[in-house]
Amino acid sequence: MDSTELLHILALLKIEGVGDIVAKKLINHCGSAEAVFKSKSNYLKSIDGIGSILLHNLKDKTVFEKAEQELKYIESEKITVFYYQDTNYPNRLKHCFDGPVLLFSSGNINFENRKMISIVGTRQVTSYGMDFCKKLIEDLAVFNPIIVSGFAYGVDIVAHQAAMDNNLQTIGVLAHGLNQIYPKTHKKYVAKMEENGGFLTEFWSNSNPDKENFVRRNRIVAGMSEATIVIESAEKGGSLITAMIANDYNRDVFAVPGRISDKYSQGCNNLIKTQRANLLTSAADIVYILNWELEEIATKSVQKQLFVALEMDEQKIYDYLQKNGKQLLDVIALECDFPIFRISSILLNMELKGVIRPLPGKLFESI
To answer: What is the DSSP secondary-structure string of 23-83?
Structure first.
């Protein structure tokens, strides 16, 4: 996208009454943001939802002064801009009707990896939540997912740190412009995050971390990801809003259960109880429900060993597959007398050891 079109998009987004939905409608009808400003009122009036007030606002030329200032900042700071019509825009977010027209980013973000999950939760994370988050990301690292979160205190920063510790790309979605970091104490993580991942925001450089911005930010966190995972949450909180948005986008939601007496497990327990989230006890639950394939990765990363140490439960399943050939997960669970949630975890461990491989249709066979 050239600077002229970017200038017109920025100007359009500054028109009073124009948000992401209206801006997309105008651009789609006119072909470009520049064409919107050049189109005659009679043509614009024919677009559904475009009334006389908005037509009058489109004549406001002062928006170009603000747009020029932002464009200078983007160019001087070498900010990467993702436009909703471009191929490098986050694919899943592109299908959200209220997704941002523009996203601004810093660092080295690469959206080519199809596996992308968001991890959210309370800012007052407990040791239980912290340990679960770290173990979850460590176990998922073999799939090389992108870890998305909000760069806030608590669960967010634990998820970002765990991703970096496992050499995974991680993206912090901000509720303010790229000219600042909130909270300030997290500045120490910026450089390392930008080495493999970075920061993403829809907000201009003069935007502060105002309360309403966090709710808008949450739709990006939910929309760009394959699934949203809630580690810990009180009965009310921003992470629950993110989970609700993910549900509205028809994305998978997972929640970590906790004791009914724990304050920061109430939100997760309620999500599970009301069937708005899948029960999450281990990485295997995510692998099973999202149907992630490990075969290609296992072939590359797991060395063939002459002798592989198997646990008793693993040996039972391996012997069954050796005798009966490839079998459905549900059949394996039934024949080997394991509950589904348990066998998913066992099968994942066996895949990592290189003794079985997954096949399409939730089939497994021994190697």
So the answer is: HHHHHHHHSSHHHHHHS-HHHHHTSTT--HHHHHHTT-TTHHHHHHHHHHHHHHTT-EEEE
* Whole-prediction pTM: 0.82
CB 217 within 8 A of CB 174: yes
Please give the helix or strand (H or E) that residue 287 lies within, else none: helix 283-290
One-letter identity of residue 274: T
Closest by CA to 220, choosing from 52, 365, 101, is: 101
Cβ neighbours, 10 Å, residue 25: 16
Paired residues of 252 in beta bridges = 227
Six token digits for residue 307? 């002798």
The two tokens of residue 180 are 């600042």
Q: What is the pLDDT of residues 179-211, one digit of tens each?
A: 999 999 999 999 999 999 999 999 999 899 999
Q: 57: left (phi > 0), else alpha (psi -120 to 50), else beta?
A: alpha
Name the band, by pLDDT with cuts 50, 70 and 90, for residue 358: confident
> What is the rounded radius of gyration, in angstroms, for the C-alpha atoms of the chain?
24
Angle of the 340-352 helix axis to the 283-290 helix axis, nearest 10: 90
Q: Where are the beta strands (DSSP E) in 281-367?
A: 327-328, 356-359, 363-366
The residues facing 162 across adjacent strands are: none
Angle (nearest 5°) at CA 366 between 343 and 136: 40
Structure tokens at 27: 């651009």
